Fold this protein.
Amino acid sequence: MQSLRASAIAFAALTLATIPIAAHAEADWQKSYPVSQKPSLTFSTGDSSAEVRSCGDCREIRIRVEWNDRRASDYNLSEFQSGNTVNFQLHEKPGFGFHIEFGNHRGPRVTFETPASLDLEARTADGALTVSSVQGDLELHTSDGAMNVSDAGGALRITASDGSIRVHNASGSLESHSSDGSVHIDGRFSGVQVRTSDGSLELELNEGSQLTVASSVEASDGRVVVRVPKNLAADLDIHTGDGHIDCDLPLVMNGYNSRGSGHEIRGRLNAGGPTFTIHTHDGNVSITSL
């Protein structure tokens, strides 16, 4: 028994001895890139959080890396500018993929300050992604981390493999695909394509929303709640494979089916318009007016 305890203590001491502990905080890495007109920013990060926010009428893209409790030498950083296009990548070096975290240990944080209007392609492999107050073609991906988008507009395309999605006060068109995590979206949209494989889904089309293209909401496993303006014009097609439907909208009914545990409602809202499909395979559907 004593030999086992001694071995355990020796192993713990060896483990602690091999954990990289920064003797002092490393200086932030930062750089500015002058741009004109509408710039493009493409970035990819791993094992770090990332935030994109507007600097208003500025004519540059500013990037800052706060290393926090990690070392710059643990990461490969590459960046370049070509005209109005800026590319940035930050990824952990091979061999540093395993580390032990104690207490409030924090990984790097990358902040991008950009003009309000830009085209953006952002990818995070392991960390949260936050985007606010920008307009343009916005393509956002997270592999493992939460996605938070606010006050953004244009053509918004979101993909989250493992993490929640929150979109607040967005505008324009939206495509959102998530595999595992809750989804909360509100904004003034002209078209939506929202799909989730596992998690609850809440979508609110704010006042001023008018669908101009066919739109859809689909959930494989989870409850779906949709709220729309009273004057929204659409042809509704609501279906649940295993669950019930609550709909308090003044529909002109085209059809109603109830088969076993599934239900289906079709009807015109405010004389009809583009098709708005709401489907869930396993879960209840609720659609109400604001």
In short: The chain has one helix and 23 strands. The longest strand covers residues 165-178. Residues 8-23 have pLDDT under 50 and may be disordered. The two ends are 68 Å apart (CA to CA).
